[in-house]
Amino acid sequence: MKKLLLTFMLVCLFAFDMLAQAPQWTFSTGFSPISRSWKNRVMENPYHNTNWEWMNRGGIMVNDRVAVGIMGMIRSQDVQEMATYHYDYGATADYKFETDNLLWGTGPFISKFFRLGERIELQTTVFGLFEQGKGDFTTDYVRLVCPSCNESGIENMVTPQYGEIERLEYRERNLYAGLELGLNYFLVERVAVQGNLTLLQYENYDNKIVGGKNSVGPIPVERNVEQSGSDFIFFTDRPVFHLGFMLLLN
Fold this sequence. Notes:
Elements: H1 2-21, E1 25-32, E2 48-61, E3 66-86, E4 92-115, E5 120-145, H2 151-157, E6 163-188, E7 191-214, E8 228-234, E9 241-249
Antiparallel strand pairs: 1-2, 1-9, 2-3, 3-4, 4-5, 5-6, 6-7, 7-8, 7-9
């Protein structure tokens, strides 16, 4: 027992000594309400789009002004669109399309810091990010409008019944590389409020339908959500920003 206790104490002393000599670590966390991927790439003309992203970064200071590390994120996005099909006899049918995805991502980053004052610091970050996730692509039959039909005629024509008629599994894969500009305001010596704006970003994407069920057969109005390709955007096209905190450890 004494030998075990002595060994434990020696290990603790060694660990504390290593931590004392270790370089400084950084950790930051931030949220963004802006979608990293363009909503019109998912739907042609969406009327509703909600998004949130939680980004965390952990790194090591290789010198007084440069940090390298790994970042991890989780993002949720919901996009909805209405579309109308026009029949030859004057009736119209309205459909609602929706994608609801949860995505996870990780990748490396390099940040450089520029002291502007006693509490203010400018930060530039180059990053790479791999993101993927899956969710649902659903289609709802909303209503049928037929001015020349009586009420019973409309009821007979409503096939299928109103509501959800299709639910498919929707997978999304994205690769990003970009440059961010940030500003840190230190509340105390090792804790800062942080804001970052993505100045430019390259993205490569691949979206696919991988399964699901359709309860009615072919739908007269469709949306092509299976898209792939590449794009390059600036902050003027899509201002992706994160607000949060940064901690300096050790």
